[in-house]
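Comment thread on ticket #2218

A.B. wrote:
> Attaching the input chain for the structure job we discussed in standup.
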Amino acid sequence: MKKLVLLIILGSSLSAYAQDPEDALRLSWFHPSGTARSNALGGAMGSLGGDLSANHINPAGLGLYKSSEILLTPKFLVQTNDFKYRGTNSSSNDNKSSFGSIGIVLADGLKKNNWTSTAFSISFNQIADFSNHISFSGLNNASSYSEKYLEELIHDGADTTSALNNYIFGSSLAYRTYLIDTTADAKGAITGYQSLVPLTGVNQNYDVLTTGGYNELAFGWGGNMADKLYLGASFVMPMINYNKSFYYSETDATNNANNDFARFSLHENFSSKGWGIGAKFGIIYKPESFLRVGFSLHTPQLISFKDLLSVDMTTNTEKYAGTQTASSNDLNNGYPGERDYTVSTPLKTIFSTSYFFAAPNKPTQPLGFISADVEWINYAGTRFYGNTYDDATTAYYNDLNNTIKSIYKNNINLKIGSEIKLDGNWMLRAGAAYYGSPYKDEELKASRLVISGGIGYRTNRHFIDFTIINSSTKDMVFPYRLNDKANTFANMTGNQMIFNIGYGIRF
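C.D. wrote:
> Ran it. Output below, let me know if you need it in another format.
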């Protein structure tokens, strides 16, 4: 049944737009980046110390510093993604350069009270890079993106006035462009809603370009007791910048000019900025000169976010209503929608050990080491909280948090790295890291495997490190989520090649 379009727009009827469970995973499931040396070792730095990355991994490692240093580590990334969606293969790529880590360590090598030495550090580190390009397409005769709006209107029992005005980032746009319309009985009375997308087959196209990063500003302190016990703590300020340009379309695959649907397209511009607080605590103990064990605890970070969203939709229903367009900005006095909320990230613990070995002919002179970290993280522990305390907002975020708990699980990540001294001042490094699936559903096969290597050159005052990292990711991308049907997804295989250079000065 066709509907009348109201000419008066109620901009004050702004409603909250939906968040996805993937928003939680973006803040926890990634392989953290650090200094060039740390990256070459697979990130297995929990019990090593003596590197700026200790400020973000195990601050007790700052206690191993006996001299001060300043460090800069830029990086360059090349990324390729391959997708398989409903039997169709596709690929996308992206590349960029950025600063990895920058910071300073101020060490005091003089004995004071019970401390053999202490060190203070300030560092800024991009622990995750959000730059990515995800693009896939395929033929779907089982479901449609439009059913997401249909479910929302039916679930809320929305009348036509609400459908027209109260869902300005989704369902109202679909209703205004006739992607979703009403149904009526024989007497013309409205009985519900329907999608005009025929499930005889639509060609779906999904394209997302993301930029930004998860950054940490850390203030850390580490102390050394008799070169045996090292304690440390860091106060961290996470800074998030995430931007997404999302394009999605469905086109009638039958080319039937009389089935009331030709195509619809959706374009979203989304930005999210956040900052917060957190803390990291650590300990390293040397039971023997050749052995170190470490433990660090990363508290949940409380991050306050402000999001902006604009959505445009165009639908062509052929003879039914022709081509119609609608924009969320037009329904919100010309402005993008705003949302303020707070996120508590998952708790993380790291258990680590390092073994130092010497050349057979020089047993007192260390030749190198092998180090390993076991990281436990509670992916299901991410929590969202509204910054307003009305019943509707509280109920919404409770439902979102329950969904996160039902989809994700706790998991263990493994890291290992080794360094060997070569002739002169050169060092050779290699590492690997494995991040298991964060999903409870065993059918969702997801993982990250990081293989890295590099070389380093050190003098008394200067050092430089070159690192190459290859990160392979297997994951799923859901173009949309439905409550009343099985969700369809694209299998993604991603590959990142990262080139990292670190340059430091000791003083």
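A.B. wrote:
> Thanks. Noting for the ticket: The chain has one domain: 22-148+201-506.
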